[in-house]
Every structure is written in structure tokens, then in C-alpha cells.
Design brief:
With about 280 residues, the protein is an alpha/beta fold. It folds into two domains: about 170 residues, Rossmann fold (3-Layer(aba) Sandwich); about 70 residues, Conserved Hypothetical Protein Ylqf, Chain: A, domain 2, CATH 1.10.1580. Helices cover about 40% and strands about 15% of the residues. Strands 4-3-2-5-7-6 form a six-stranded mixed sheet, sandwiched between helices. A two-stranded antiparallel ribbon has the order 1-8. The relative contact order is 0.16. About 5% of the residues have low confidence.
Length: about 280
């Protein structure tokens, strides 16, 4: 299944990023710690052009900490990339990123005296780029919303006297070859609702959770009854949360939305939907 997805503003953003590369010293790639593989845009490899790259796993507070460590090891050992996991709302984590960037620049980049370091911030929509930039700049510069495609233009942002950031719009690659990538991006809110139906997303999500996080129903909804099928899960959650239509039938649309929102907010626990290929 190939899903086509490349809005006009994303194609324009790609062209503008390529124009700016010559003056960039370090590329900071923001990915979602819950889907470290699916949230990596393969076009970034093209952008990098052998420039130093730091991979920042954002939203690590929502991800499985054990799997996050496995992904950090993967990026270091298999891809030979710098990487760090952060909660973009924690100032101490932002400080760690700043120090790591400075260390990378010292080791890998030769700057002229008094030259300002230029960092490019890249990532797919809704991975936390804007929240990261606002914390780094210590002021509200980038617009933050829990929906994709909020940032739609580039902007240069000075950070102190010796550092400048180029914030870029979140961009996706032209098509998804794998359905698994598509539903995971949808589950985390990286692509808009109309690409996949809520039923399709939740069916994949609940199947994955039941296999790898079997206590998710108990954690999120205090339901201890083992579900036998996806329809059974919808019924159980609908009854527990009072999602009823006139006549007593379950409001399935509302239940689907609740499951997605509870996953995205961390109510179901710290969950990662992908395992690092360490072998």
C-alpha cells in the first residue's frame, strides 16, 4: 500500500532548505521518541550532505524508557550519529542539548573567530520542533499546537551571541510505502486525520498495545478483562467511559477519539511503537 502525501507547502519547504544548506554548520533532526523509525524523514539524509547531525528524540516522557535507550544505542552504533532523548518541556533537557551542540561544533566544525554557529532544525510535522525552539530561545517564537503542519515558513532565530537557528516547516516525504509507517504517524498526530480513518488507526494501535503492552487497558481504563477482539475493546472502553448514544448503543466514534487522545497524552502509559533493529 503506497500512500501519497506531499502538500504544496512541504515541497516548497524542501526547496528552501536545500538553498540554505551551505551556511549551516550542524543539522538538528527532531524525531518522536514513540516512533523513532517512522518519524525520521529519509529526505534528511539528502539534506545532510555529510554535515554533522544531532538526532533529538523528543517527547521521551511519553515513550518507553527501555526502548528509548535501545534507539539511542542504535543511532550511535549503527548510524554513527549523535543522539539524545529529551522532554521538550524540561529546561534541564534543553540545557543538555545546548551543551551537546557546542561539543559537536568544537569537535567537528572549524569556525572563524567571532563567527556565529548556524544550526538547522528539521523534522516531520508535530514532533515537538516548536516547543524545542521556544525552550532553547527562552521565549515564545515558534507557534505550538498539537496538530501537524503548524509551522509553514522558515525563520532565523538568534540564540545568544554565537548561535543562530534556522527553523524549518515540518515536511514529510512524497509517499509512504508501508501501511505501518502511515498508521503510526497518524496515531501520534504527525499527519492529518483524513489520511487514515480512526477505525484503521485504532485497530492497529490496540493490536500492537495488546501484544507489547498487555496492561494498557488496566493502566488507562481500569479494565482487567482480557479483550478477545478489537470490537470487544471498543465496547469495554465505551461502557467504562459512558460513551453511549440514545438507546444505549456505544458511540464508537467517540471511543476511537478517546483512545487516540489517551495514547497521545500518555494516559495509557509510556509507550513506544517501534523496536530498534540492534541485531
Amino acid at each position: 500500500m503506497t500512500i501519497q502525501w506531499f502538500p504544496g507547502h512541504m515541497a516548497k519547504a524542501k526547496r528552501e532548505i536545500l538553498k540554505q544548506l551551505k551556511q549551516i554548520h550542524l543539522i538538528v533532526e527532531i524525531i518522536d521518541a514513540r516512533i523513532p523509525f517512522s518519524s525520521r524523514n529519509p529526505l534528511v539524509d539528502e539534506f545532510c550532505q555529510h554535515k554533522p547531525r544531532l538526532i533529538v528524540l523528543s517527547k521521551s516522557d511519553l515513550a518507553d524508557p527501555k526502548k528509548t535507550q535501545q534507539w539511542l544505542s542504535y543511532f550511535k552504533e549503527k548510524l554513527n550519529c549523535y543522539s539524545i532523548a529529551i522532554n521538550t518541556h524540561q529546561k534541564k533537557d534543553i540545557g543538555k542539548v545546548t551543551r551537546l551542540c557546542q561539543s559537536i561544533m568544537t569537535d567537528r566544525v572549524k569556525l572563524k573567530k567571532f563567527q556565529t554557529s548556524a544550526l538547522m532544525i528539521v523534522g516531520i510535522p508535530n514532533v515537538g520542533k516548536s516547543a524545542f525552539i521556544n525552550q532553547l530561545a527562552k521565549r515564545k517564537i515558534a507557534k505550538v499546537e498539537n496538530r501537524p503542519a503548524v509551522t509553514q515558513r522558515q525563520q532565523w532565530i538568534p540564540i545568544g551571541n554565537r548561535l543562530t537557528l534556522l527553523d524549518t516547516p515540518g515536511i514529510l516525504w512524497p509517499s509512504f510505502e508501508s501501511d505501518s509507517i502511515g498508521w503510526r504517524l497518524s496515531a501520534t498526530g504527525a499527519i492529518k486525520k483524513h489520511i487514515f480513518s480512526a477505525t484503521h488507526i485504532v485497530q492497529h494501535l490496540t493490536t500492537y498495545l495488546s501484544k507489547f503492552y498487555p496492561n494498557w487497558l488496566s493502566t488507562g481504563y481500569s479494565i482487567d478483562t482480557p479483550p478477545t477482539a478489537n470490537d470487544h475493546i471498543i465496547q469495554l472502553i465505551g461502557q467504562k467511559r459512558g460513551c453511549l448514544l440514545p438507546g444505549g448503543a456505544i458511540n464508537e466514534e467517540k471511543v476511537l477519539d478517546i483512545i487516540l487522545q489517551d495514547f497521545r497524552s500518555g494516559r495509557l502509559g509510556t509507550i513506544t511503537l517501534e523496536t530498534a533493529p540492534l541485531d
